[in-house]
Amino acid sequence: MPMNPKVRVLLVDDHGVVRQGMKLYLAADSSIEVVGEANNGQEALTQVEKLEPNVVIMDLLMPVMDGISAIREIKKRFPEVEIVAVTSVLEDKKVVDAVQAGAMGYLLKDTDAAALSEAIHAASRGEVRLHPEAAKRLMREVRTPEMRESLTPRETEILKLLAQGHSNKHIARETKVEERTVKAHVSSILAKLGLSSRTQAALFALKEGLVG
Question: Which residues carry this modification: 4-aspartylphosphate (predicted)?
Fold first, then answer.
């Protein structure tokens, strides 16, 4: 088994020309392997089960099953698979719905090859990558939750690192604890804040000024 296995990617878009363009973009990155394609969300579910990708690139506006519904289903059935939404739509509700459904990234279709490749690698590490305008729109929608319990100093430290876009593995190295301990802390942070994803927690931290 190779020391640095390729990131396995599934491309989901109802326009073949878009998928072909992304394949050409990603062909320049030898550490990424496009393992399959799908025309809609329903087909994406079948392909994820069959091909076991690490990362799914997901369009949002598609027939049969839209991207947001597909993101939600994939994360429910295959929680280890990360998803980056790549779409032409930049509406507040779409951005929020995609992130709440479980997307680790939100990019526009005019994204260049380097940014697309970087977002895929980031997602494979459990890190968030958002188009700057998408991040602004999410920030507007983030509501300061009423904490169910106070965060411990360790949880606050982890929340700050999470908001900087770091993966659990990186946070574990920084805080000198085991990765499974970081995962438990992240779950506790989400529960205390009443949030459903690490992306929402990161945005909360940014909005509250916990990260400079």
Answer: 59
Interval 90-126: pLDDT, tens: 776 788 788 888 888 888 888 889 999 999 998 888 7
Give Cα separations from 212 to 80, 88, 93 (angstroms). Answer: 30, 30, 27
Tokens, residue 173: 């190295």
Please state whether the predicted TM-score (pTM) of the whole model is above 0.85. no
Where are the domains positioned within the chain? 7-140, 142-207
Q: Is the CB of residue 128 less than 8 Å from the CB of residue 84?
A: no
Determine the Cα–Cα distance for residues 158 and 141; give it in Å rounded to an integer: 23
**Percent of all residues in the chain with a pLDDT value above 90, rounded to a whole number:** 47
Structure-block tokens of residue 75: 């994360």
List Cα–Cα distances, 209 to 53, 128, 138, 160, in angstroms.
Answer: 36, 18, 15, 10
In this structure, what are the phi and psi dihedrals at residue 118, rounded to the nearest 5 degrees?
-65, -40
Tell me which of 141 and 186 has the higher pLDDT.
186
Homologous superfamily (CATH) for 7-140: Response regulator (3.40.50.2300)
